[in-house]
Design brief:
alpha/beta; Rossmann fold; eight-stranded mixed beta sheet; 16 helices; 16 strands; 46% helix; globular
């Protein structure tokens, strides 16, 4: 039997933004545009916090679908609200499919799984899903109580579907460890970045110098952290390590780019920081930063540090290397898969605490890694050049993401034709 040609693709996602905010939203938009540039017709359905609207995003038609009054009127949990929105998403997508049926539906995470399943059953369309994160057991690793309803939805999806995409080998292993028997139906396709969108033009040395001076003053080294301010991302271990770093290398400024998950947590972080004399003056919190601005920060930074307790993927390390900022990352997850230790960056360990069982970043080794690169200009420059080359050769979007995704589309569609419905 000939492989089914995939020319018409529908993407279902909770988030999609022309301004690109958030990892999943970033990935879906870049995938949509890469598929379009391959000559595919791409239709995206995403959640709208306001009214339903249709936007032409440079050749990709994006349908922002609002929740129905029935869904909004329910006194439900967040998880139940997502499931209710799947009914709205299904109804909207069904009307589109009646006019133009896609060759495949690619849904992202359990957030749009129910709608995809119902569309598959109604219209006999092959589907494939990507898992970007796993609530159980990951969130318990830093002391957060996982949401049971979300965990139940993840379990139903991962144990009932026949095939899905994982964004890293680490994520695939965690899924298999927690849901034995799932590894054989997992295809790992690493999410990368589109350089045309992320870094269309590099800063000139003159503009880079001006930006560095604006951020940190004259002659200071800059260490950049990019990510949400929460326990997962390791902001407290970063501050603990920074206190050690400035004792030996005081001429440094930490730039923290990211929004806090809550006011209470941000207050805790600032209180924690005040426990170290002189640290507050060495840290600049920028809050939420748009991606085009983040690109500039990467180029201005001497080092980027991402001390997450765990990351399923860790695209930030790829972004940092692409911009020429050597990353220091934590091991055990997708961040470690993105960085070549002692070649493009440094990896420091995360270990379970003997008493609490919670995973902890090795603070001393995190500080030592920063000091190593701060004191060694030559090594930092070597990592910078090697990182750029590594991203261009191994993490470019076409090689890492686009072509493997097209292959899994064709394989999924072929299996669907042979079996009728591979997910039943």
């Amino acid at each position: 039997m000939n492989n089914k040609t995939i020319n018409n693709i529908m993407l279902l996602t909770l988030g999609y933004s022309p301004e690109i905010s958030g990892g999943v939203a970033t990935h879906v938009q870049e995938l949509a545009h890469a598929l379009k540039n391959e000559g595919k017709k791409v239709t995206v359905l995403a959640h709208s916090p306001g009214e339903t609207k249709v936007v032409n995003d440079d050749g990709v038609w994006v349908h922002y679908v609002s929740a129905s009054s029935q869904t909004l009127s329910k006194n439900s949990t967040w998880s139940q609200g997502i499931l209710g929105f799947n009914d709205d998403l299904y109804a909207y997508a069904a009307n589109l499919i009646l006019k133009d049926q896609p060759d495949i539906i690619h849904y992202h995470h359990w957030y749009t799984y129910k709608a995809a399943c119902k569309l598959k059953e109604t219209f006999s369309i092959p589907t494939i899903g990507t898992i970007h994160y796993l609530t159980y057991p990951i969130e318990s690793w830093w002391g957060q109580e996982p949401d049971k309803e979300i965990g139940d939805n993840e379990r139903e999806w991962l144990t009932s579907t026949e095939t899905f995409i994982s964004v890293s080998q680490s994520m695939a292993k965690v899924i298999e460890d927690y849901y034995p028997g799932t590894r054989e139906k997992t295809t790992v396709i690493r999410t990368s970045i589109s350089m045309d969108k992320f870094l269309p033009k590099r800063l000139s040395e003159e503009k880079k110098t001006a930006l560095r001076q604006k951020l940190a003053g004259k002659d200071k080294k800059i260490i950049l952290f990019a990510g949400r301010i929460n326990r997962q991302k390791g902001i407290v271990p970063l501050l603990d390590s920074a206190a050690l770093v400035i004792k030996k290398f005081p001429n440094v400024q930490y730039i923290i780019a990211g929004q806090s998950d809550s006011r209470d947590y941000y207050k805790m972080v600032t209180t924690h920081m005040e426990g170290y004399p002189g640290l507050k003056e060495r840290c600049t919190f920028l809050g939420h930063v748009k991606r085009e601005q983040l690109t500039l920060l990467y180029q201005a930074a001497d080092i980027s540090v991402f001390p997450s307790i765990y990351e399923p993927l860790g695209l930030v390390a790829v972004e940092a290397m692409a911009a020429g900022s050597p990353p220091i990352v934590t091991g055990g997850g997708g961040l470690e898969e993105s960085v070549q230790h002692e070649k493009t960056g440094l990896v420091v360990p995360v270990n379970p605490d003997e008493v609490t069982g919670l995973f902890k970043v090795d603070i001393n080794k995190l500080a030592d890694a920063q000091l190593t690169l701060l004191f060694d200009d030559k090594k930092r420059e070597e990592f910078s050049e090697a990182g750029r080359k590594y991203v261009a050769e191994e993490h470019n979007f076409a090689k890492s993401t686009l072509y493997p995704t097209l292959q899994i589309y064709e394989k999924t569609a072929e299996n669907f034709l042979v079996k009728g419905d591979p997910n039943e």
